[in-house]
Amino acid sequence: MTVDAKVLPAAAYAARTDGAYLSSALTRGPWHPEHQHAGPPIALACRAIERATAQQGLSHLSRLTANLLRPVPIGELAVEVTADYVGRNAGHFSARVVAQGKEVARFTALAQRENELELPQGLPGHPLPTAVREAAESPPGVMPFAGSHVGYADLVETRVAQGALFNGPCAIWFRMNRPLLEGEQPSGYQRVAVAADSGNGISAILDFTRYSFVNSDLTINLLRRPQGEWICLDARTHFGQNGCGLAESTLYDEQGLIGRATQSLSVRARD
Questions:
Q1: What's the pLDDT tens digit per position in 154-177?
Q2: 3-state class of 72 per DSSP?
Q3: What stretch of H or E contains 13?
Q4: Packing angle between helix 188-196 and helix 39-54, nearest 10 degrees?
């Protein structure tokens, strides 16, 4: 049975009455059939952090760092958030995701208090740049692992603004086909988190069937609140000769530049 013939889950996660979350097949990643793509659980932690920051009157999530300690299994997850310090202009928060009794991901975040500010005319680099091509003008793209099973490639729609998927530097638009949590529209921050972890995949320069290049972290820096459904990653990958690498993505929404994301990579030849 093809993916198109299957009934897709309603969302990436369903909330349980005890506060935990049940993962659906839409979270499945390309590396292992029982492991999640890191984008959805990072976005789930982002959602919990957003709720905690809002209680402190901090409305802009300016940085989110995810340390991916273990593969995240497709199953039940718990998310815990702590306010480490909240000041006049900003607050520092930490969080963790737990699965099967083990901590699988740890997070730190910086949230800021927003205020209206009129910038002077003629600032260098302003107005902010926009993506190389709009989402509406970009042709559809297909993940190389799409169709073999229900997973992340069904959670998101991709369009190619420049380059090609999994073939070096490229600019790819992402839009979520299903919500992160059943019955709830994802925030702009959550949309960024779902997409940003794909930077090392879409800009791959090694053969996916011969090498693995898994990221152990993700840091997202945002200068403003993301707007709309589409998020663009203008991504590229760099490798050292020591089995390590770096993927970096410039992030856009349809209005223009919103920030950057980086990932540290572990590169291995497949057996």
A1: 999 999 999 999 999 999 999 999
A2: coil
A3: strand 13-15
A4: 150
What pLDDT digit, counting tens, does each position of 67-124 carry? 999 999 999 999 999 999 999 999 999 999 999 999 999 999 999 999 888 889 989 9
Q: Give the residue among 67, 68, 51 at the shortest CA–CA distance from 59.
A: 51
What's the pTM?
0.94
In the predicted model, is pLDDT for residue 3 greater than 70?
no
Q: What is the mean pLDDT of residues 203-210?
A: 89
| Beta carbons of 60 and 224 less than 8 angstroms apart | yes
- Amino acid (1-letter code) at residue 252: Y
- Give the integer Cα–Cα distance in Å for 156 and 145: 13
The structure tokens 């990579």 sit at: 265
Query: What architecture is the 3-115+131-269 domain classified under in CATH?
Result: Beta Barrel (2.40)
Give the separation between CA 117 and CA 111, rounded to whole angstroms: 18
Q: Could you identify the residue written with the tokens 């919990």?
A: 48
The β-bridge relationship of strands 102-112 and 90-99 is antiparallel
